[in-house]
Amino acid sequence: MKRRITTLLVLAIIISSVTWTKARAALTAPTLTQAYRKSDTITVKWEKISGVTGYQVRYSFDEDMAEPVKIKVKGRKNNKTAIEKADTTKNYFIQVRAYKVTDGKTTVSRWSNKVCVLGWDKTAEYAKNSKIHEDGACIYYASGKNATGITVCVNAGHGTAGGNKVKTLCHPDGSPKVTGGSTAKGAKEAAAVSSGTTFLDGITEAAVTLELAKAVKEKLLAEGYNVLMIRSTSDIQLDNVARTVLANNYADYHIALHYDSSENDKGAFYISVPDNKTYRNMNPVSENYKKHHKLGDALLSGFREAGVKIWSSGKMALDLTQTSYSTIPSVDVEVGDRASAHDEKTLKKISEGTACGIKKLK
Ligand SMILES: [Zn+2]
């Protein structure tokens, strides 16, 4: 009799552990796909998980998720929530998990990948030179075993409504521009964010750079790089100075994605630092221009390997706001022009070239 009870007990344990394992296995952790802040509202989106009751979002001002605030989101299909009245000066670390209620018992998935929606630190170097910094960009952390701990800022060019009507200083010290470009040589101020060009088929450069940035983000995350995504939507209120300040403070590399205004599909190139003594002696260009070139050259090499067409020598020297304020390796890459293809396959090729280039930087 005793033996039978023991056998039953063992069986019960096995069955219950099987049920437990199944319940846990059935609850896949969702992937947090998008987060950004428009003024004081943070939007968080994730992938739907089938068969769950709902989701729980948690956020903390601490990287290790200490003292988190939790938000319950009922319903399997509700894969989006908002954090209202956010403190726009603080960084919000955010995760999501799925939960399921069965016979009154709640089981939960693991927490998802982590993201950080950035606040604006007005004391950061050069922050006072920015005029537009209402919104918040987001860092996506690579969570795979191949995580490198390296953060790449992916800056989808343009996409700041009204940005062309506001002026910011071209150089941190207020000195005049040494080359022409979208702003004339000698100018001390330039559009905070210009509108960008329009493709021959009518689509805006800003729309294409956003799609490309999303593709680059996915590729870099898969390769183990954290990604600071400046823009996740058609509009973000962050000017070129603000974008550069964020990259300086939170990233190891800054890549701005652009398309040139030519219309012969001439190929990709990066904007190099003009060979001008005054400019190359200016802070922070003096300390960093060689690093910008190294990053640009690595990207060209990655593009070549991925089969992306390169224009001429692959570089053009211009005095840019981005370069003038960058304290980390930083380049503007013109990946094509108004006549270039921008279908999914083409953007994927460019994103592969970008990841391939970054990997060359050791
Ligand atoms: Zn552009």
Kindly describe this structure:
Helix content is 28%, strand content 27%. The protein has 362 residues and is an alpha+beta fold. It has 2 domains: 27-117, Immunoglobulin-like (Sandwich); 127-359, Zn-dependent exopeptidases (Aminopeptidase). Strands 3, 4, 6, 7, 8, 9, 10, 13, 14, 15, 16 and 17 form a 12-stranded mixed sheet that branches. A 3-stranded antiparallel sheet has the order 1-2-5, with no helix packed on it. Helix 2 crosses helix 7 and helix 5 (285-306) crosses helix 7 (344-359). Mean pLDDT is 94; it is low at 17-24. Zinc ion is lined by residues 157-158, 196, 205, 258.
Supply the key terms.
binds zinc ion; Immunoglobulin-like; 7 helices; three-stranded antiparallel beta sheet; Aminopeptidase; globular; 17 strands; alpha+beta; 362 residues; single chain
Please give the structural blueprint.
Blueprint: H1 2-26, E1 32-38, E2 41-46, E3 54-60, E4 69-74, E5 80-83, E6 92-102, E7 105-108, E8 115-117, E9 138-140, E10 151-156, E11 167-169, E12 189-191, H2 205-222, E13 226-229, H3 240-250, E14 253-260, E15 268-272, H4 277-281, H5 285-306, E16 310-317, H6 321-325, E17 330-337, H7 344-359
Parallel strand pairs: 10-13, 10-14, 14-17, 15-16
Antiparallel strand pairs: 1-2, 2-5, 3-4, 3-6, 6-7, 6-8, 8-9, 9-13, 11-12, 15-17
Helix pairs in contact: 2-7, 5-7
The structure holds zinc ion.
